[in-house]
Structure formats: structure tokens, C-alpha cells
């Protein structure tokens, strides 16, 4: 089917015809209300006996339809039917109720036009086919020529009787053409009347941004927790395999470290997946912070073969919870990068302190070491990872700064996270700070397990 037949009787034309008939069905209650108004005005008890009075009832009912279109569900329902039956792209139509005055006005116009055209096409669909079929079969049945009155005189003429089937077929084609034309008009007007307003586009953009922010946060959490754990477990298993026959005690400690790391990571993974499933992590372990998780992190990192020297110059329990949580992930990723890229036996220094209302975190490790050959990044993860990008994202969201790169013979990661004065309990340990430099030995025994 192609060309004009397809335009008149194709699948899309048939669906749009159904859409118009649905509009006519929706218009019927308003027409009945209009007949209640017209009947006393004209003194006629049977309004539907006169086509003129029917049209008057229809005209009175349409403004009522425009008023009822202000109900919130009108636009979502109309949008759904337009997508399904009119073949309009979903991206060009709005989702949800109309909220602004302009959107409500356009919805009222659409609903009125849909019911108006639908009422006309539905009425034609009921009246024209029987009339057209009667004209088509009229030459075959002489009894049909006796009614209505006056018709026999006209049909006594041979040419009129011969043309009646042609007129019947033309009536059906005219009906199909009217239905196809009205359906095409509604499909063309739908994006303008049911399309998203600037406010709708802004709300959709904000919803997408919020969803993307949640996805990015989950991706960072999974990368930092699971990625660090896998790196640590890989190095511990590798070291244990090399000394399996010569140092059983080391192997036993490595297996214990692997067990502890995986158990802790499974708990963190449950928390992240709880957020992904339910929007909240009720019943799962809380996210680790510097105060609650740094000791275990340092212990596991040292068990993986790194020589970590930690200098903590601030009471960790006094840090704001958000800063402490993000700082833990930053430290975790910084140490994880050393595990993945620097090799075993590397000496790492970690310094965390508060200076001028900002939490500073510095992780340093030698670029070259004689303890073990550097581990190529591709050997751990082809194509590299997203660790530094995740650190920068976390820092930027808190309004801080990130510096990462070689410095003399070391690789230096330096992060500063701002703190509010009312979020921090300042004590004497914050006085007398000096400029950042190579960290010294641990200053607080509880920070170096």
C-alpha cells in the first residue's frame, strides 16, 4: 500500500482515526450536558431529533470540556494517547501534569480541539457508512427506492440510479479523507500544544542532573572501595604465592589480611547497593570516615606491602562527617594508586592536618625505588583508571583543590578541603602550623597501628 491509499487507509491513518473516535466518545458527556441547557431554551423535549439542536448542544458542551481539561491528569492521558495513536515522537511531548498557566491554556486548547474534531468525525463515522452502502447497493434492490419520500422520482432517471454507487464510494472516500486530514492536523499540532514548556525542560534537566549526580557518586564509591580492595587483595595474594613454600607465617598473615579486606569491602558494597536499590542504605553498614576507618585502611595497606608513615595533626572525630567521609575515600584512593602503580615495599608518607580552616591531605611516594621495580599501570588495569578524576570530583564538590603530579623525585598528591568554623572543634593542636613539607614520624601513636 502506497501513495493516496496508504494516506487514507494505512496503519497510521487508522490509528489516528481511532484517536478521533475516542475524542468523540469523550465529547458525548459534554454534549448531553449541553442538551440539558438547549432543551429549555428552545422549548424542545427531544433535542437529538434535530441536527441543528445537536450542533447547538455540541457547541455548548465544548467550553465545559475546556474547563475540565484543567484537571492534572488530562495532559498525561492525552500525551499517552498521542504517542500511541498519532505516532508523535515521545521526546516532543511533555511528561506529567501542566503546572504553569501557559501549559494549562495549551492543554485546554488541545483538549477542546481533540473533542471537537473527534465529535465531528465520530458522527460522520456513524452516519456516512450506512448511507454510502445504501447508495452502492441501491441499483440492486428496488425496494430501497421507495424511501425516503421523493427519492423514487429522482431515481426513475437512469443516470441518477447509475451514479448512486459512485456517490456512495465517493462518500466513503470523503469520510476517510476527512479522518486522515483531521488526524494529521492533530499530530502536527500536538507538539505545540502538548509539548514541554521551558519550565518543563528545566525541570527535566534538573532531574537528569540529579540522577547523573547520584550515578557518579555511586560510581565513585564503587571505584574507591572495591577498586582499592581488589588492588590490595591482588598484591597480598601475589606476595603470598611467591613465599608459599618458604614463609608459611607470612602466607598466614596475608590470608588474614585478605579476609579482613574482603569482609570490610563487602559491607561497603552493601551500603552502596542499598542506596542503588532503595535510595537509602537502611540496615547496612555506615560509610567509613577518617575517624572510623583510617586505622583499618592503614593496617590493610601495610599488609599489602607498603611502608606507610602516617602523620595525623588533627583530632579526626572533630571533623565534619561529610568532609571526613570524602577525605577517607581520597586517602583510600591515594594509597590505592601507590599500590597499583609504584610496586611493593614502597615507602609512603601520609599527612593530614587542619590549617586555616582547611583540611589538607598529602600523600607522597618515591617515583623510583630500589626495593621493587615499578609496576606498570597497564599490568594492573589496561587503559588506566579513574582514581585521580574521582578525587578531583570529590574535592570540587566540597569546594576544595587538588594537586597531583611529580615533585622532585616523588609523586605528590595534595588535597585541601574547606571546613566551616562551626563544624570544627578547634583545639590547641591547630596552633603553630607550618607550611607543608615532608612529613615526619607519626605524632600520635593511635594513628599508626
Short summary of the structure?
By secondary structure, this protein is an alpha+beta fold. The chain is built from 13 helices and 5 strands.
Describe the structure in your own words.
The chain is of the alpha+beta class and about 450 residues long. Helix content is about 60%, strand content about 10%. It has helices at about 5-10, 10-40, 50-70, 75-85, 100-135, 150-155, 160-195, 200-240, 250-280, 290-305, 320-340, 375-380, 385-395; strands at about 305-310, 345-355, 360-365, 400-405, 410-420. The chain has a five-stranded mixed sheet with strand order 1-2-3-5-4, covered by helices on one side. A hairpin with a 2-residue loop joins strand 4 (about 400-405) and strand 5. It is elongated and about 115 Å long.
Evaluate the radius of gyration: 39 Å
Instruction: Specify the structural class.
Output: alpha+beta
Please provide the ordered H/E string of secondary-structure elements.
HHHHHHHHHHEHEEHHEE
Share of residues in strands: 5-15%
How many individual β-strands? 5
Shape by Cα distribution: elongated
Read across the widest sheet, the strand sequence of neighbours is 1-2-3-5-4
Average pLDDT taken over every residue: 79
Main β-sheet description: 5 strands, mixed
Low-confidence stretches: 369-385, 421-449
Distance between the termini: 81 Å
Fraction of helical residues = 55-70%
In DSSP terms (H or I, runs of 4 or more residues), the helix count works out at: 13
